[in-house]
Amino acid sequence: MNRTALICLLALGLLAPPLAAQEDMAEEKTVEKRLQALEEAMAGEKEETKSSDWDFKWSNGFKLSSADGQFKLKFGGRIQNDYAFYSADDELEAVVGSLGEGTEFRRARLFFEGELYDRVEFKAQYDFGGGDADFKDVYLGLTDLPVIGGVRVGHFKEPFSLEEQTSSKYLTFMERALPIEAFSPGRNTGIMVHRGEERYTWAAGLFRDADDFGNAADANEINLTGRITGLPWYSEDGSRLLHLGLSVSDREPTDDSVRFRSRPESHLAPRFVNTDHFAGDGVTLVDLESALVYGPFSAQAEYIQADVDSLDGTDPSFDSFYVYGSYFLTGEHRPYKNKSGAFDRLKPRRVLGEGSGAWEVAVRYSTLDLTDASITGGELDDVTLALNWYPYSNVRWMLNYVMADLDGAGEADSVQMRFQIDF
C-alpha cells in the first residue's frame, strides 16, 4: 500500500464518527418533527371533537346542546286525559242538547324544537287528540335582532290574552275561561315581531285565519294583532309581582261572516252560547289583563270587548270577563316567565317521595254576554272550583267542579278530572 492510499484510509477513519453522529442527529430531528406534527394533528382532532360534542340531558323534557352553545334541540310532548260527569236541568238540555258522561284525550301532542347558530329558532308541534295530526306551533324565526328583538313566521298563537299565552300545561283550571274561548283568536298563520325583557314585553303581527293545518287558501283578509305587558311591581325573584297588559286585534272576518260561541268551561259539553253566523265586515277585540302574585296567593282577571261592524248597521258589541284566585297549600307560588309575559311551570318544594308534592286550590267566576242589538247569542255565568295536585313538576292531577247558569234556560253542574304528563 502506498503512502497516498494509507492517508486516505486514515482520513476516512477519523471522519466516520462525526459523519455518523451528524446522521444520527438528523434522524433524531426528523423523528422529533414527525412527533411534533403528530401531536399537533392529535390536538387539532381533539379540539374538533370537543367542539362537536353534544350534551344530552333530561330537564322536564329531552334536551341536547352543542358544546359551544350555538345549537340547542328539544323534543317531547304532552298527554292530557279528561273525564267528565254532568247534571243539568231538563229545560237547559232542551235548549243545548243532552249532557252525559264522557272521556277524551284533550291533548296528545308531540313536538321538536330548537335553536340553530344561536340565532335561528324553529318548532314543529302536532296534536293527535282529535284523531288526526293537527298543526299547533309550526314556525321558524330569527332571534336577538337589534331593536325589534325577534321575528317569527308560520303557524302559532296570535299575541292576545294572558290566559291564551299561558300554555295549557300550566293553566290553573282545566279549560280557559269563557271570554277566552269566545273571543281569543288562538293560533293562525302569519308573521310577528316580538321582544321580551325582564320588565316588559311587546308583540305585533299580521295573520290570516287558518284551518287546522295552517292553510288559508283564497283568503284576502288580514288581521292585525298586538299585545303589550309590563311588571310595575316585581320582587323576591317573582314570588311577589303585579302584571298588567293590553291586547288589541283588528280583524277582517272571512267571507264577511262573524260568529262567537263558548262551552261552559268543559270541553266535553256542547256550546251553551252561540251567536251563529251573522254578516259583518270588521271586528275589533280589546283585552285588559292583570295578575297578582303574593307568595302562595295569586289572582288573575281579564276583560274582553268585541265590537262588530255589521253589514245591517246595528253594530253589536259584546263583552265578557273572568276573575279568579288561587292558593298553594304547600307554600309554592305561581312562576312567571318574564320574557313571555305569561305564567310558567310550577316546581314543587318537595316532590312525591320526599314529601307530598304541591297542592293548590282555586275558584273562578266568569261571565259572557253574547246578546246585543239584533243578536241573541245568550248569556252564561260560570263558577268553577279547582283542586290541583303536582306530585312532580311535569305530572299533574286536576279536579274541577263547574256550576253553569244559562240565562233563561237553567243550570248545569259538571265534575271533571284530568291526568296530565308532559315531557
Q: Which features would summarize this protein structure in a list?
A:
423 residues; alpha+beta; Porin; 16-stranded antiparallel beta barrel; two-stranded antiparallel ribbon; 4 helices; 53% strand
Protein architecture, described:
The chain is an alpha+beta fold. The chain has a domain at 54-107 and 167-183 and 231-422: Porin (Beta Barrel), CATH 2.40.160.10. The chain contains four helices and 23 strands. Strands 3-4-5-6-7-8-9-10-11-15-16-17-20-21-22-23 form a 16-stranded antiparallel beta barrel. The protein has a two-stranded antiparallel ribbon with strand order 13-14. Strand 18 and strand 19 form a beta hairpin. The chain is globular, with a radius of gyration of 33 Å. The termini are far apart.
Oligomer: single chain
Number of strands: 23
State the low-pLDDT regions, or none: 1-22, 46-51
Q: What is the SS-derived class?
A: alpha+beta
> What overall form do the CA principal axes indicate?
globular
The ordered string of helix (H) and strand (E) elements is HEEEHEEEEHHEEEEEEEEEEEEEEEE
Number of helices: 4
Mean pLDDT score, rounded? 91
Q: Major sheet, described briefly? A: 16 strands, antiparallel, barrel
What is the compact description of this entry?
The chain has four helices and 23 strands. It has 423 residues and is of the alpha+beta class.
